[in-house]
Amino acid sequence: MSKLGSKPFMISVVGDDVAGDLLMRYWKTARLPTEGIQQLPGIITPAASLIFDCNGELAAAVVSVEAVETFLTPDWIKQFQPNIFAAPVVMVDANLPPHSLEVACQIAARCAIPLWFEPVSVAKSTRIASIVNHVTFASPNEIELIAMANALSPKKGFNFVPAEATKGIGQPVDYLFEQLKPSIQFLLQKGIKMLIVTLGSNGVFFCCGELSFTKSNLNLSTSSFNGIYELMKETCLPKQCVSYVESAQRSIKSFAFHFPALPASVVSLTGAGDCLVGGILASICSGLNVMQSVAVGIAVAKAAVEAETNVPAEFSLSNVADEAKKIISAVKPLLLE
């Protein structure tokens, strides 16, 4: 986010170890505030060990987040209520212990701050059950989406069959959407305003159950409008998509779009999901609308998979904007109801 012009305030915990020192030094070098980050002796900085298959896709992961589960307490979070109250958007991830997650959401809700829920994993995505009424955005992949829906449904009847397991059924995107539509509709009915369902190389489904969310809901000042805003502010959806939204507004319906991914020269898929979410959040905070921001997030994720590091050393905002405009021009409406 900082490489795209945003200055996020983080509330977290690291250990007084090599990894913790590196992270704190990086954040300070990037001129990001670190007051919300505890650095404690005797604990291990959260870390993940990832195993990839021959196609570069994540096959397995072992994650250590005991420090977050133990030390990111409600009392620590409450110390930073003024920062949360002043935020354009609050993002929480499901690594937070349930009570801390609930407290963070309640604080944001007091000032009607839009809240983004990042599921993290299938197992932890179910933590949405206690906070769903506070969630503005959620960004699950296909399997996390199903897990979230089942966590909120007494019948737990939602399921998903990956496209590769059923060859020859329609086009991949159409097939995916039909498979996921019941879960999407259910979660929107439960109160989530917007779902950004990540599909890997198939792009993103953007699904919205409330049309009133605009940048006027955000705590933005004109100083927030940075380079990516200036490059993207005039970019509009294709006419067919504009007509679709207008029709949905008249009939008070939910709506959905498919945002494609652009072809990429993949070096590593590590970090793509984080860059997608970071790109969307940075763009929203810069003043762009949500649709423009989703396109920027996909363009940022493309830059990430083409880099050797998890996050590119730097982003060319003009290149990101050019890629985002290509994505917006190819957006297609989907029939949600």
How would the blueprint of this fold be written?
Elements (H helix, E strand, L loop, with lengths): L11 E4 L2 H12 L7 E4 L6 E6 L5 E7 L1 H6 L2 H5 L2 H5 L4 E4 L4 H13 L4 E4 L3 H4 L11 E2 L3 H11 L19 H18 L4 E5 L5 E5 L18 H6 L6 H13 L3 E5 L12 H15 L3 H16 L11 H13 L2 E3 L3
Parallel strand pairs: 1-2, 5-6, 6-7, 7-8
Antiparallel strand pairs: 3-4, 8-9, 9-10, 10-11
Description of the structure:
Helix 7 runs parallel beside helix 8, helix 11 (272-286) runs antiparallel to helix 12 (290-305) and helix 12 packs across helix 13 (317-329). By secondary structure, this protein is an alpha/beta fold. The chain has helices at residues 18-29, 66-71, 74-78, 81-85, 98-110, 122-125, 142-152, 172-189, 227-232, 239-251, 272-286, 290-305, 317-329, and strands at residues 12-15, 37-40, 47-52, 58-64, 90-93, 115-118, 137-138, 194-198, 204-208, 255-259, 332-334. The chain contains 13 helices and eleven strands. The chain is 41% helix and 15% strand. The radius of gyration is 19 Å and the shape is globular. It folds into two domains: 1-72, 3-Layer(aba) Sandwich (UDP-N-acetylmuramoyl-L-alanine:D-glutamate ligase); 73-334, Ribokinase (UDP-N-acetylmuramoyl-L-alanine:D-glutamate ligase). The strands form three sheets. A seven-stranded mixed sheet has the order 5-6-7-8-9-10-11, with helices on both faces. Strands 1-2 form a two-stranded parallel ribbon. It has a two-stranded antiparallel sheet with strand order 3-4.
